[in-house]
Amino acid sequence: MDQKATRTRCIMAQFSTPDLLIFFGYIVVLLGIGFWAGRKKKHSASELFISQNKLPWFVISFSFIASAISSQQLIGSVGFAYRHGLAVANWEWLNGPAILLLVFLFIPFYIRKKVITMPQFLEMRYSGKVRSLFAVITLLTYIFINLAGVMYSGAFALQQLFGLHLYSGIVILAVIAGTLTIYGGLESVAWANVWQSLLLLGSGLLIFFLGWREVPGGLQEIIGTGDRAHLILPSNHPDLPGSGLFVLMISTNIWFFCTNQSINQSSLGAKNMWHAQMGVLVVGILSIGVAIADVFPGLIAHALNPNLEVADEAYVYLVNRLVPVGLKGLVFAALIGGSLSAMEALINASATIFTIDIYQRTIRKEPDPKKTVRVGRWSNAVVLLIAALWAPLVSKFDYIFSYFQECWAFIAVPVAVIFVLGVLWKGVTDKA
Fold it and tell me: What is the pLDDT of residues 63-78, one digit of tens each?
């Protein structure tokens, strides 16, 4: 049966009264942390967007994880793993080379040069024209691919949890994430993400261990047989060719980790280089556990029920079946909180690039700091509005996961090449 045709008949979450109380209580706590962390008045764009020289390594680590893992990751990766098996874990386990490049090649450059945005790095290395072009491309990517996709996946999750109309879910997520980001900037986002990432990882690991106990054959039965049990699939596989995974490791992963404003924003605000590098190294170590939390549940769902019509419903199916009353509300809260965290990081990154790389350079070259902060906050709102209007179009793709991967594939390789060669080879010019 067609994936898109069945989305209106989604599996609904099963809530008890304690689950509902815990769910809404958690969202209130998450917002409270964000408002408390961002309470200080912001006097400049760098204070609002980067919080330079303020963030310790553990905040960077968990903010990094929460920015990368959203409901798209949980719902999308679990659904993709449900369909295709163990090979989907490569999206986490092949991160190592890119993370090492970020730690030892890029972070030293970013911190020493006091880089605030990724386009700014390109002006330092190439020219202002390259900076402007990359700023526009990044802004369009964040609004129409990353933010719209995360917003859609979060609304899809709310539809499964409460039966909300998709558009209503998009509006709710936009209001909550936008309010927190516009109010407190990066400090609100980063500190709220510490709490959120701990719960995201914890809930994924909880489902893994509960599922391991539930599946009669244990880990062997979960992994399965045939292509489902292989990490590397044949190069002619329609969705996960082995050759494509190698390209992913040296292109998309480098683009995602080393050149991505929303991912690197917290490391750019580190207390010093040691905190930035340590924070990202911890992310690399935790990537092993992230796959267990956001890929293996898809394998467990397939082992328990290989006949789900809509793969993206596997995560909610597992929570309904495995998680006890009380904890279920917390796990579903982590799912929605994951969308909020990723949205906040993307909104903040988009507004940072617009304000610093476009507004300050082309519209108002000697801006008043207070006015720049106001422009930054208004750009947060505009970015959010455009992404919210675009988000429903993500439903045109059969899998939430594939929307991101297919769109990113066009952008990742050239951007990765430009950044890596820019650091390693002096012979590359702005015209090249």
Answer: 777 766 666 667 778 8
